[in-house]
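REQUEST FORM: STRUCTURE PREDICTION
Request ID: SP-0412
Submitted by: Lab K.M.
Chain count: 1
Length (residues): 426
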Amino acid sequence: MKRNLLTQMRNEWKENAWLIIELAVVLSIVWGLSTSLYAQLIGLSEPKGYDPDNVHSIAAFYVSSNSPDYIPVENDWEAYYEDLYRLYAQLKENVNVEAIALHDNAEPYNMSKRNYVLTPAEENDSIIYNANVRFATPDIIDVLGVKSLTGLSPEKLKEILSKGELLITDSRAYQGLGKDPLLLKGKTVFFGNDSSRLFRVGDVVQQIKRNEYEINTEDGNVFFPLNEHQPGMACNILLKLKPGTTDKFYEEFQNNKSLRSSRNVCLCDLTSLMVYKELIQKDNDVNVRVYFSVTLILLITIFLGLLGSFWFRVQQRISEIAIRKVCGANRKQIFVRLITEGLILLFVSTIIVSAIIWPVADKFMDMFIRMSNHLTFEGARLIDDPVILIMEITSVIVIAIGIIISLWYPARKAMQIEPAEAIKAE
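STATUS: Completed
RESULT:
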């Protein structure tokens, strides 16, 4: 039966050639679209490195001496630290607050970067660790739910920051240079070229992404400890509220002026991180939804085209199906023959497409990736040969399912026709 099928397909090579070309085009499109969509969504599958639930941000401002609301003080710096700490300590004692931290650039969904270079002081190594430095008091561990990659507890991580040591994150970029970030644990490092100030790396924690779509292909992160009594002029507050207390805390914060101001220090812009998430990721979410919708529409159009092609093909073979039934073939045998023929055509088209595309796979995938959006420029770095192969196999399986579905209904209808009726015209 298989030999007869191959002979028949060879005799009908003209019709089959056009169908092979159609399947090759379809496979190329589905393959490219699936890879591009993967490049956009891969960031969502990676851990964020933080838990934004119930976490809220508060901005701290210092009233300018030119403002009519300015209260004269003897020393602005000392007064600022004193008043900021007073507000911070008062919020820390609030019954609705689970954890609170002062920070500078440690807030998730903040797209700014403080680029620093960590250099091991004990080794003469030209490979450096590039980092986005996040300054924060030790309780940032509890506020964001930072997790150790070496199994240390949150209490141990806070103890490390309290001792003035650094916490660094995993870094795919550093690994790409042939280095394991875990090997930096316990090492003495310095920032940039300033070897006069040395710091010890206390532990390695999970990568902290700036948003949920960000790909972990760039720099790592460093948590630099802050003194809660003298944190710096650019500090703000992150706090984690107890579940179910958000409305109560917001109301108290608005109504109790002593929670919001102390002399020239004012706290304002109390905002949930989930609000920042919606604002920062709005464009990304829209782009992904649009791209996914376009991809879905194209797939539906493609499979409607396949349905039309194979429907027409089956209709041309109604008399052949009838003759096979008269000769003793049952419905299952006929159905398997039609499906096998469609899958053989797909197999041939796959070989042709693979032979054409694989030599230029990077350029081919880059074309589809650049048609999507800016997210995929980082995602493209993760599209290596194994991923491309997996996407090709997935695309072939999807098209094979489409072929089976496209053949099932017209073949079923054709096999219900009585042989005498089907071959009457013959």
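NOTES: The CA atoms of residues 205 and 279 lie 27 Å apart.
Reviewed by: T.R.
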